[in-house]
Amino acid sequence: MDLALARGAKKAVRLAVSVAAHSPLMSSVTGQFSQALANVQFHNPENCIYSNASAVPMIALEDIRFQLSRQLTHSVRWRESIDAMIKDSGATLFIEVGPGDVLTGLVKRINRDVGRVTINSVSSLRAWLQSLGG
Length: 134
Description:
Elements: H1 2-6, H2 30-38, E1 49-50, E2 57-58, H3 61-70, H4 78-89, E3 93-97, H5 102-110, E4 115-119, H6 122-131
Helix pairs in contact: 2-3
């Protein structure tokens, strides 16, 4: 932290994480991860998939595999990814599935005009589906 600040960082925050994801410290596992991905059967997506390492849309399966591996060692370009989804793909609703609502909050900070939903339990899924009339 001190080194980052000494080298000109405006702010340094220690993150409470168990692994150094999205950093060069993960480079020792990228080969294994890429090999594992090679054995996964992917299907052509119906919509664009955005890599948080590049913030660009992908449809080609080779690009998706490559970017999944790349995400292990590269910084997350979250703001650029969200902005691109809104601008380029016309995204108007972001749904976060899983524990917590950190990503939903980040989307809100980026663009308050888009819809945001957090699905973190079966009951929250049911409530959301019911709100849609389903």
